[in-house]
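Researcher: Structure prediction, please.
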Amino acid sequence: MLLLAHMGSIKFSLMREILNDIEAGKVTDELRRRGIPARQRLRVVVESIESEEPSLTAINAEGGAFDWLAEEPDLYSDADLVEHFRS
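Model: Predicted structure follows.
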């Protein structure tokens, strides 16, 4: 679908295409095949069609957001543990 609109002297177009069942590593080639220039700004919505979604832990580990924790000193040790017994 191609929509053309005019706002004052600015002309812009909106092209909406749905790409189904594309391997993540082949998206660039598919866009190129469809004639979309490499510098074209895009809005992308990704929906995984795999039957098994990765766990939140796997997503966090792969994303690297918590990598800095490996370099942080441990704030507590086993010596800081206190056992409480109720009689």
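Model: The longest strand covers residues 2-7.
Researcher: Thanks, that helps.
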